[in-house]
Amino acid sequence: MSALECPHSSQFTQTERTTPKRSRERVTYEREAAYQVLDEALFVDLAFVGPDGAPRVLPTFHVRVGDTLFVHGSTGSSMGLGGRDEFAVSATATIVDGLVFSKSWFHHSMNYRSVVVHANARLVTDEDERWEVFKALINRMAEGRADRSREANPKENAMSALLAIPLEEVSIKQRSGPPVEEPEDEDLPFANGVAPVSTVVAGRL
Amino acid sequence: MSALECPHSSQFTQTERTTPKRSRERVTYEREAAYQVLDEALFVDLAFVGPDGAPRVLPTFHVRVGDTLFVHGSTGSSMGLGGRDEFAVSATATIVDGLVFSKSWFHHSMNYRSVVVHANARLVTDEDERWEVFKALINRMAEGRADRSREANPKENAMSALLAIPLEEVSIKQRSGPPVEEPEDEDLPFANGVAPVSTVVAGRL
């Protein structure tokens, strides 16, 4: 049975580092919900440990294909591959859905959906896989866009790097709904509610 | 002369880790431009190294006050403070301004403004400083909001943690303008251009 045929669980397996220390009620391990966020987000932030042992984080364009997250880099980038076959990364994508205004400072919050991935990333070297993923990256900008633009030539192809990040250790944290209010605050003369936040893309080509 | 009176440079000092390996023309060290992105972004992604040596990244709400970035955490969070006075972090904020559709796969891109910060973060313990920053966090959600909601009580105050991240080692990477086209692609029968992206907050309270 190939990886494509292998049925995956609808729930990610919870691990120590995907277990929150607080706000546990906001964290789940639902695969489809996490994939929806990854598919909607315009970029992911990718973190890794630099050669000096300090953390690095940078935004990258990404596409999810099945149970793998692919991020786009460059062969000359500072991602710290350094000839290694794989290396530890953490990636996150966040959609903000609203600003939550409570009657108390403490309960001000945001409505959001946020995915965090922990994994060992590998450099994609198989040419067929690279081609399929580059195509998927272009098609993510607009449906069918890969057929409405010129394919990469060998020189361009050689200038791009792809990292594959297996989606195995994943959590999704989210908040929705109205502000929380303490009973003693209900009568305070302050407005409360949610200001919706939306990200709009006008006119994909 | 206090820190507040100390005139800072309009340019951040470039370091090895804020020096890009490629796309150098997109990276600058302009303080005001970086601050504008941090002030506009709805969240930052904060990266640090976990106790297992692997990278962690998570979204946090933030506010910039002068030359310091403050991020909001919780006393029970997994930020890995572990009793340390300070620890290495990297933080990033990104605004996406457009999707860039080129006639070639290779020149598809995004218009964006992205700030990356490297620093040692410290836990804010001074009560006056904490109060001022919590107030600034609330006021960042809507102008004057701290005066239109109930202040934190001692119990609520004790449940919140603040990290201070000095804005000293900072870079800003940005792209704007139309797609790049290779001369040989100019006559290809494909549409090209930029699809504007905007994030809209409706009705702050």
TrEMBL record, chains A, B:
<dbReference type="InterPro" id="IPR012349">
    <property type="entry name" value="Split_barrel_FMN-bd"/>
</dbReference>
<feature type="region of interest" description="Disordered">
    <location>
        <begin position="173"/>
        <end position="192"/>
    </location>
</feature>
<feature type="compositionally biased region" description="Polar residues">
    <location>
        <begin position="8"/>
        <end position="17"/>
    </location>
</feature>
<protein>
    <submittedName>
        <fullName>Pyridoxamine 5'-phosphate oxidase family protein</fullName>
    </submittedName>
</protein>
<dbReference type="InterPro" id="IPR024747">
    <property type="entry name" value="Pyridox_Oxase-rel"/>
</dbReference>
<feature type="region of interest" description="Disordered">
    <location>
        <begin position="1"/>
        <end position="25"/>
    </location>
</feature>
<dbReference type="Pfam" id="PF12900">
    <property type="entry name" value="Pyridox_ox_2"/>
</dbReference>
